[in-house]
């Protein structure tokens, strides 16, 4: 009987615009309404919309998934009772920094660490969430204090002078320890030589075997060193009422000393294969960002075009076609004019750039100027070093071995560096024209705070894929580690143009180039030596953030805070 029922009527056509009717007079302008048995959207459209929504919700790197992770781990018992809509994260949890975007990524790290390393054992003891809440408050207090201290640190000097100096010390110590000066029957221990050149009490004595007595003693000393380091940081950053809680400080100290420093810096991060893999991934990311020229598709040439090309070859200058020579000269002239204009504009506006010594000048009250830069026990504010004299230039020269491969280039760079500082006008001295320009470029392209959330997101997706702890990585065999080093060398070579490779290596042999790059990467081939570098970096960063730790011991800091 359903077939005998009349179909539903179409909507009235009186309200249709005459413009649509005149635009297409051959087709009907009547828009039919959907019938009861006709769906509003087709099945492919439904599937596409559902798939896009599902992909957006299931993306672990999206803000929606990140907020859901934080709520489920840290806010399951807070803030949403009696509300129709959930409260924002910044209203429930204490702020970590002055940026909400940075707080979101930091809280994602905290949520993953607490879920993977704290809930696994604490939930078996008690379901009370007070401990997690107290840990979050302590971390928030520490991060806010660290942000205030970070504003007073000279990041230019830290990143381009002090950290490269540590890398330079590692390079020279490793190469000296692995340079044999004795005939083959006599053997030397490269680790003992390295440790003698760069001694560190936490890594003493030099381990002898995998499970020998010296190795066990060295691991015990390293554990005590990490605990003292974390206890000193907590003694400076924690509030007094939390510092009195021995249970809380012990648990928080164990989390940072063993799970972060022990498993991270002293564990996987010092392994050669992990460092090579990290360098390779960075090189691949940089290579992907470099725009590659499009490869033109082959086109079949007609006889007329072949004749035209042959006639153009006849009219040439020194073997180059006249038209090609003209456009090449025009292109180089345009590039030179643009570079000259940029140089003149930069030099003209250099006087308007902010001064690097602005923190030493009075911008308000004397108290503000004294707090803008850290002072030492003598009360002397350290002067800023010119960027042209920072250690990054000499470290890069030693890493690339320019003194041996290209001594003329090394001498020319040294001459330019000396003339910019000691030459007429001292254009490269502190707060001069070149120094201001370099400082402005560093702050614009490197020390840009707006890139920090993206950097934290990239780091989180690399360390915790799908917001979970990655499965344990199988340690590569020695043969696999060498293969990984070769891949890293190939990735680095791909960043350098072929002409520059030939000029630097002095050969066109591909295997020789790879071997030379592997020789440079070999400075990270010893995990014990890498620990010296990484722990020194941690010490330097902590002392720059908390200068009092470089002047007082841990016990003295605790007595001063608790007295």
UniProtKB/TrEMBL annotation:
Keyword Ribonucleoprotein: no
Source superkingdom: Eukaryota
GO MF terms, alphabetically ordered: phosphatidylinositol binding
Biased composition (Low complexity): 10-23
Cellular component annotations (GO), alphabetically ordered: early endosome; late endosome
Region (Disordered), start-end ranges: 1-45, 357-380
Cell compartments where the protein resides: Cytoplasm
Domain PXA: 99-286
Keyword Cytoplasm belongs to the record: yes
Residue spans crossing the bilayer: none
Key words, A-Z: Cytoplasm
GO biological process, one term: early endosome to late endosome transport
UniProt-recorded name of the protein: PXA domain-containing protein
